[in-house]
Predict the structure of Calcineurin-like phosphoesterase domain-containing protein.
Amino acid sequence: MGSVFVISDHHFGHKHIIDFESRPFENADQMNEAMIDKWNAVVGKDDKVFHLGDFSFLNREKTGAIVSRLNGYKYLIMGNHDRGRTRSWWLDVGFDEVSEYPIVYNGFYLLSHEPMYMNKHMPYVNIHGHIHGQKYEGPQYVNVSVEHWNYEPVRFDAIQEMVAPKEEQ
């Protein structure tokens, strides 16, 4: 397996998200194509992508067509807009793995759709989406909504480097 990436909140096919989040696209079709291109520009066939929810507002056929065009092994952690469909629906459209709940990755990273409650004594970093252009303060939260990352998946090692404790000078 190659590199690992994380990303969330593509909202494929959701025309209103363009205005809600001031996305730089004229319409949903242009947004969809640009986000597919950006994904494939950074993710290779042997890479793994954790998508942290709110993937698509489109029907089964159109969602499956998008998933099939995206490089990599695709793991969906279902978001609030994904939960209206079953886990098997998401597997049927082409995700390799699907979780209805947050997962712990590498023993230290909580991968979730919504930000999770964290305090300074908890030994985890919460990588999440859901809040789009907003950000939670503090080193324990990393928002991977597409709006923060130029609409492309983020390398997991870049996030690890971001949140690593800084050595004192």
Summary: The chain has one domain: 4-163.
